[in-house]
Design goal:
Elements: E1 2-5, H1 11-22, E2 26-31, H2 35-48, E3 54-58, H3 64-78, E4 83-86, H4 101-129, E5 132-139, H5 149-169, E6 174-181, H6 187-192, H7 195-204, H8 213-223, E7 235-238
Parallel strand pairs: 1-2, 1-4, 2-3, 4-5, 5-6, 6-7
This protein binds NADP nicotinamide-adenine-dinucleotide phosphate.
């Protein structure tokens, strides 16, 4: 299978590129700025899975023309894309009362509007092939998280979007599901969340462990497989059993 993953240069996205390549898939992945990290992802996969095709594309998912042109190039180069993982996201944390328009707009545009642009661009391709798997990466924050009113809204919005797609396109061979991530130490959490989150997690998570990027990548690998063909419109939490954010 050929898979598109947004935000594959670092963190959970990189682990998904690696896992899906190891699972026998070819991967087109995007990055926003970090060319060096994107090249490292490619080098790691080339060493581990030399028989796989893995390519990186510069793309800001907020920009609709870029989304259309880069996905057009990807389809030309890979001929067919059968699955997409909308993983790219940002955080701009602030108390709601202090949040600027820029902080709100940047997070909604990247985390919610971007995945919509990506999916809309791919839908005709999926419909004409009568095959497509859509996976949208959400967060436990979607039920509310202090300091993340913009991020929580974007991640909750993804669920409504996904469940609508599941209904509109299920009959056309396309499934859409959400993966709700718990806490995985990455650049995103390192830069923006405080030590207290780590302590909160270890105290409240039933299995007393933080997640790994590979935990999320393993589920993505299953959801794009034929074994997951009857799973559609689901919200699947990968959080060691914790159901809420602080
Ligand atoms: N880590 C967690 O604990 C956690 C918890 C819940 C949910 N999640 C979700 O899991 C996903 C991955 O998170 P992560 O922790 O791996 O994040 P990360 O380490 O910060 O990586 C973010 C990725 O998104 C890309 N990106 C950022 N802005 C973009 C844009 N405008 N257009 C295209 N790509 C863009 C980055 O590219 P560059 O490298 O070029 O900047 C990078 O590849 C996100 O959807 C996040 O919300 C994570």
């Amino acid at each position: 299978m050929n898979v598109l993953i947004t935000g594959g240069s670092r963190g959970i996205g990189r682990a998904m590129v690696q896992r899906l390549a190891a699972g026998g898939h070819n991967v087109a992945f995007t990055y926003a700025n970090n060319e060096q990290a994107a090249q490292e992802t490619i080098a790691q996969v080339a060493a581990a899975c030399p028989e796989r095709t893995v390519k990186a594309y510069l793309l800001d998912v907020k920009k609709t023309e870029q989304v259309e042109s880069v996905i057009g190039t990807i389809i030309d180069e890979f001929e067919e894309i059968q699955a997409v993982v909308n993983n790219a996201a940002v955080v701009k944390n602030n108390a709601a009362v202090l949040m600027s328009n820029e902080e709100w707009d940047e997070v909604i545009a990247t985390n919610l509007t971007g995945p919509f642009y990506v999916i809309r661009t791919l839908l005709m391709h999926f419909i004409s092939n009568r095959k497509g798997k859509i996976i949208n990466i959400s967060s436990l924050a979607q039920t509310g998280c202090s300091g993340q009113v913009n991020y929580a809204a974007s991640k909750a919005g993804l669920i409504g979007m996904t469940q609508t797609l599941a209904k509109e396109y299920g009959a056309k061979g396309i499934t859409a599901n959400v993966v709700t991530v718990g806490y995985v130490p990455t650049d995103m959490t390192k830069d923006n969340l405080v030590d207290s989150l780590h302590k909160f997690w270890l105290q409240h998570c039933p299995i007393k462990k933080v997640g790994s990027a590979e935990d999320i990548a393993n589920l993505a690998n299953f959801l794009i497989s034929e074994e997951a063909n009857f799973i559609n419109g689901e919200v699947i939490r990968v959080s060691g059993g914790l159901t809420y954010a602080p």
